[in-house]
UniProtKB/TrEMBL annotation:
Every Winged helix DNA-binding domain range: 17-73
Organism this protein belongs to: Lentzea pudingi
A Pfam cross-reference name: HTH_34
PANTHER family found in the cross-reference section: BSL7504 PROTEIN
Protein's name in the database: Winged helix DNA-binding domain-containing protein
Top-level taxonomic group: Bacteria
InterPro entries named in the record: WH-like_DNA-bd_sf, WH_DNA-bd_dom, WH_DNA-bd_sf
Length: 73
């Protein structure tokens, strides 16, 4: 875990990561990738990159599966 600076964790302080955390905090326990992408306005690649960093730090968990025949993240 990253050291706190002035009570803020610099890992989640960049705007894209803060946007992801805000979108997840406001919603239900699990939110699909598409919903987070639309809520934050991030591209697929940017959302994946920042979600991976947040997952590595333990802030979120990424689950992959399917709904019917369609993959879901």
């Amino acid at each position: 875990m990253t050291d706190l600076v002035g009570g803020l964790d610099p890992l989640i302080h960049p705007l894209p990561r803060l946007s992801i955390c805000s979108a997840l905090a406001a919603g239900p326990q699990w939110v699909d990738f598409r919903t987070v992408r639309e809520t934050t306005g991030l591209s697929d690649s940017m959302l994946s990159k920042h979600a991976w960093a947040l997952q590595e730090a333990g802030y979120l968990e990424v689950r992959k599966g399917t709904v019917g025949r369609r993959p879901r993240t």
